[in-house]
Amino acid sequence: MFFTIDENTKRTQIVFWAMMALGLVSWLVFIKYPFHSDDTGLYYISTNLDLKTFSASFFTFRYGCLLPMWLINKIFGVSLFSYYLFSLLTWLLWVAVVFILSYQLSNSLRAAVASFIVCISDYHLNYYSSMTMPDIPCTAFNLLAVLFFFAALKLSEDDHKYFYYLFASAFFAFWAYLTRMPNSVFLITLPIAEILICRRLKYTMIFSFIFLCFIGCELLANWYVFSDPLIRYKIIFSKGMSDPTVPIFKTFIDFLMRLPRTLGFFATAKIICILGFMGIIIAVFKKNMLALSLTFGALSVFILYALPVNTWEPLQPKMNLCIRHYYLLITFLYIMFGYALFYLVDKVTYLIKHQRGIVKFINFLAFVFCLILVAGNFFNQHSHITLVMNHDNIPLKASKALKLSLAKKDWEIQNFDVYSLPGTMFFFYPGFNTLNVINGDINAKPKAPCVVLLTKRGIRFYNNQFTSLGNLEYADYFLSLLRPTQYATTIFETPEVIMLKIDQWVDTKELVFSLNDINLSINKPPVSG
Which pTM does this prediction carry? Predict the structure, then answer.
């Protein structure tokens, strides 16, 4: 279906599977150990998907991640394997779509390979792909929806197979909507593509009808399960978007410069992005309608996420700006990088009248240039790379220290329930899994006396938010977490992890546990309420 442009289909498929293998290796190189972040919080919800947690958390509008992860947990059990499986499958789907879409836009196997290897050299894309975060899956599902829609556009109205392609397109668009709803603005790509290519909107209308049928099914399901068909929107616009945000752009020029500053982390990344934008300009002059429609969609996602942190009226309330929000745009620029590079190569070779030896040499130089950029992108970011089984990793170091402590001491602690900060995956690691580690309920503390196991980074984050914002709602949330009081005894400690025996809880907003000096914080005198 997708490899219909190149006459040498067998060669194209061989290259495609070779690139998929390379993508798998890249994923393994950049893999991140789960410990405590939004990704582990999302995974934790999927391990215990009941109606109480499902309706209470702002993560729950990400059904597109939660439901597959829940199914994987049911089949394979809660483990590191299950944690990584969903991420790996969506990563492979994403890199496959990158290759195929680049191939379709450029009609060039060389450009597809160049775009692919540049994409998988990006640290941020690789790093976040090994987490159970919604961004890479949402990007993959949206691009797959576009790919099936483009396939439908190639069929005449007399060929009824177009309906199946439109159905597949609507399904993946709906699943992207379930994964990260705001990114559905990217679907503006579809009507623009049909108008530019076919001068009509028939397929868009059919797609829209199918998509709305899926939305209707979700509303009915929410009404049946939660007695509230609009629960998704209430969660998103209350709990999911309530983080306090400060406008970061002082001027309109500062806003416009945010994009190159965000994408151009290093010299090589800047070159890649410049060529990506050059590819868009070339697409305009060549009237490449597929590329132009994707440009509108990708820039729409950027504008959607950039505006809410300005003083202008936001499209969404209080959304924090993050590189993860731009994955659709970054992916598209990397695709257009290959498009631009080999368009320029073909122009040069045309000007020299296709002398065979020189043409091969110029193509060789282009690939060398591409590989230099890939190497630069990779090595400029080497300090962030986490190799598989890297023993400098925080949870592995902490678990190793705990195993040594357990071997040296006859602890009664092994007879206690040990409560961890909600969503912290201590039980994945040796040493900790010999204890009865329980993920703490975010809505209630265990009764004292008890033992708690905490990441200092997590507590520091909540403490800084509480002290800097002075927000009463945030204070209530902070106090609902497992946090030490002055009635605590340190049982186990590493630079990033601390285990404490809590003899008594103190529930006053004035008493805030600070990790700048643990001993002073724990030994502070009681504060009257």
Answer: 0.81
